[in-house]
Amino acid sequence: MTDTLSIILLTALFAALVIGLILLAVRLAQRPRNALLGSTLSPELVEQVRELKSTGELDQAVFIVRGETGMSHRAASRFVKKIR
What we know:
With 84 residues, this protein is mostly helical. The chain contains 4 helices and no strands. Helix 2 (43-54) packs antiparallel against helix 3 (58-69) and helix 3 (58-69) packs across helix 4 (73-82).
């Protein structure tokens, strides 16, 4: 009786783990973190980010990059910091 219960519990645990991994893979595949959604970085956007960065408005620059490109907050922040 104990062996049967152990097998059932291990099977349920294994099935839950496999389902969790499948859900994680689907979620990650739907939208990569650093993907640009439907647009590219236009020269006008880069120039606008430079201007905002030079005046110290980093949050506004990140906000604009996110709105124009669909980048995550983290990716947009890295982009703004790398612009010279």
